[in-house]
Design goal:
Blueprint lengths: L3 H16 L6 H10 L7 H18 L1 E3 L5 E3 L1 E8 L2 E8 L5 H32 L13 H12 L19 E4 L2 E5 L2
Length: 185
């Protein structure tokens, strides 16, 4: 059985033989292979790619709260369903306190993981590659968060910003910074 890379090289050889081209771009071969039905993604991979695209769109969706803060509208949390880790999404207007707390703590743990890796990378560079003063990376983010919040209070929302969802109504208007508003009942 051929490996995936060996199969791709075999398809390239078939393309060369069928077209007579000895100079070609990989995009040409890709177009040919897809049109001929020789190349495609399994359904599960397509579902994963599509789900990732939805997740990216959800992460960017914001609304302005009554204090003028730009707030993430949809929140994710990882759960175990029948032994399979799954990411569930809920919107700001309907998420329970318990699910919101789980989502926020999971996001915080991602930040902690990044900080741990940053600390390891800094320590390793300082010990084995740095010929000067050790690089010091502060992990107290309190001043940074305060500075960013002050800067954000001075930003004015774009006049083209879509209407905001009512914080009182369970009916939510779908919105995204780059997409038109779509009303849903």
């Amino acid at each position: 059985m051929l490996s995936r890379k060996e199969e791709l090289r075999r398809l390239a050889d078939e393309y060369i033989a069928s077209t007579g081209k000895n100079v070609y771009a990989s995009r040409e071969i890709a177009d040919w292979a897809i049109r001929k039905g020789y190349w495609g993604l399994p359904k599960e991979k397509l579902i994963s790619l599509c789900a990732d695209e939805f997740a990216r769109a959800f992460k960017e969706e914001r609304f302005t709260d009554p204090l003028g803060n730009r707030v993430r509208f949809r929140h994710a949390r990882k759960v175990d369903i029948d032994g399979v880790q799954t990411t569930l999404w809920e919107n700001w207007l309907t998420i329970s306190r318990e699910n919101m707390e789980t989502s926020l703590l999971q996001r915080r743990n991602q930040i902690v993981g990044e900080c741990v890796q940053l600390d390891i990378d800094t320590e390793s560079f300082n010990r084995f590659r740095n010929e000067g003063e050790p690089i010091q990376i502060p992990f107290d983010f309190t001043p940074d968060v305060a500075e960013h919040r002050i800067m954000r209070t001075h930003e004015k929302p774009s006049s083209s910003e879509p209407p905001q969802p009512s914080l009182q109504s369970p009916v939510v208007e779908q919105q995204s910074i780059s997409q038109p508003v779509l009303s849903r009942p």
